[in-house]
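Reminder to self: tokens first, then the designed residues, so the page reads top to bottom the way the pipeline ran.
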């Protein structure tokens, strides 16, 4: 069975390499020729642990290839995974124009029965539009099926997430499509949940929004902890011991960013509004998340009072560790505010600095540093914005010596307050004294 994967973003690239690793013959395709050239040489355009190796291995094995000829890839394949972007439009809805474009390409090249699989995160009912578009534009009445197989990989651990999934959701409306997808994921037969298409589409949005709710919930609890003697880390630990709640995704901090949660919770709100369902719960969670930057900056001001002409080291720019992705990263909002206030910034991130330079080019006020010790030199304060392991391993005694004022405002609760204070730092974190 030949599989075409359309789109080589995070999801498409990992899906193509992962399906090849499962033993299928896969053609990855994207209209961006420069990207295809790079990937064909076994180089991923994004930083994602293990991805380069997986690409190289399967390219060398001969069952994975990439082409910018999308039409040819569609004609050759029996199954087409649609992995193009569904970015947010100006109203907060998912912009479906790329999906529609792909559906038209599929229609034009429908030379035999094919299963068209939605892998991108799409609003419930998208499959009906895809079906309609293919039906309208195909020549003749060549049969096809649409299916939904949402992806749950996380950036930073995308490869292991894809190769060892917790669950595989297969939304179908015919036995033929079900059998095709079950065969593709044969080795995970015990983890496959077959549903109708609307259900599969909704599982993805419902999962991401639930995780976002969980994060906003613990951040609201952190606000209560900030005004009492309670410690949010301990509260989360105590809550998490109840298996009905679980320990994961109860890390208080600067809130959720990235290309998924902020966009997906907005999209689900719009879906609810369009369907006449009260989604106030999601709106509140979104509001709690948006408030994070302001509350963090209040702490910075509490420590430094006036920010003008203060030298501030910002450690971490990526929206989370182990990625170079800065989409919806809290660092962007924080840097923007600090620049407005007249602070001088020294930025450091192990992977995301090149991406950040596109938003904040180096200037007298915004300087990029080669390593963390350079960033903290003569600083009036350090702000921890992303919890890279590299920061946990810093020699804090040396850091203290290098700084002008030993102040740390930790937005990710990276450090233990007591030992840090013992070293002579003034230390502020989230929901802890
Ligand atoms: C998320 C989901 O976890 C994946 O299952 C899903 O496939 C993906 O979106 C997607 O829809 O494509 P991702 O955005 O890569 O994955 O990253 P997460 O690890 O979920 O983190 C999202 C954000 O939440 C980060 O900004 C992170 O710092 C924050 N977060 C996470 C917290 O603030 N607290 C936590 O306890 C956990």
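Designed residues (433 positions):
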């Amino acid at each position: 069975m030949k599989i075409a994967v359309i789109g080589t973003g995070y999801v498409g690239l990992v899906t193509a390499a992962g399906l090849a690793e499962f033993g299928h013959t896969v053609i990855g395709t994207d209209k961006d020729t420069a990207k295809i050239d790079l990937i064909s040489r076994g180089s991923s355009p994004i930083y994602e642990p293990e991805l380069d190796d997986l690409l190289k291995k399967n390219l060398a094995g001969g069952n994975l290839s990439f082409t910018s000829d999308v039409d040819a890839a569609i004609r050759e394949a029996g199954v087409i995974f649609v992995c193009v972007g569904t970015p947010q439009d100006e109203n907060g809805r998912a912009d479906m124009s790329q999906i529609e474009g792909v559906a038209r390409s599929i229609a034009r090249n429908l030379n035999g029965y094919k299963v068209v699989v939605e892998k991108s995160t799409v609003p419930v009912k998208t499959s009906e539009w895809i079906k309609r578009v293919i039906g309208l534009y195909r020549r003749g009445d060549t049969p096809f099926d649409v299916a939904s197989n949402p992806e749950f990989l996380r950036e930073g651990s995308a490869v292991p997430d894809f190769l060892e999934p917790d669950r595989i959701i297969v939304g179908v409306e015919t036995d033929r499509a079900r059998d095709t997808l079950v065969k593709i994921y044969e080795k995970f037969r015990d983890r496959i949940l077959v549903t109708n298409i609307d259900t599969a589409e909704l599982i993805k949005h419902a999962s991401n929004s639930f995780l976002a709710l969980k994060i906003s919930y613990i951040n609201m609890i952190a606000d209560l902890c900030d005004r009492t003697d309670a410690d949010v880390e301990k509260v989360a630990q105590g809550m998490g011991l109840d298996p009905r709640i679980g320990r994961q995704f109860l890390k208080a901090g600067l809130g959720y960013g990235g290309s998924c949660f902020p966009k997906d919770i907005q999209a689900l709100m719009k879906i609810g509004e369009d369907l006449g369902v009260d989604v106030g719960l999601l709106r509140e969670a979104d509001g709690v998340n948006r408030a994070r930057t302001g509350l963090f900056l209040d702490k910075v001001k509490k420590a430094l009072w006036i920010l003008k002409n203060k030298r501030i080291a910002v450690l971490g720019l990526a929206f989370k560790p182990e990625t170079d992705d800065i989409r919806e990263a809290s660092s962007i909002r924080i840097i923007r505010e600090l620049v407005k206030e007249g602070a001088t910034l020294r930025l450091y991130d192990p992977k995301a600095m090149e991406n950040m330079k596109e938003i904040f080019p180096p200037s007298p006020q915004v300087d990029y540093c080669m390593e963390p010790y350079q960033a903290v030199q003569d600083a009036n304060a350090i702000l921890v914005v992303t919890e890279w392991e590299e920061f946990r391993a810093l020699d804090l005694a040396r850091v203290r010596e290098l700084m002008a004022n030993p102040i740390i405002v930790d937005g990710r609760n990276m450090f233990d307050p007591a030992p840090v204070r013992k070293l002579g730092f003034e230390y502020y974190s989230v929901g802890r004294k």
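The radius of gyration is 24 Å.
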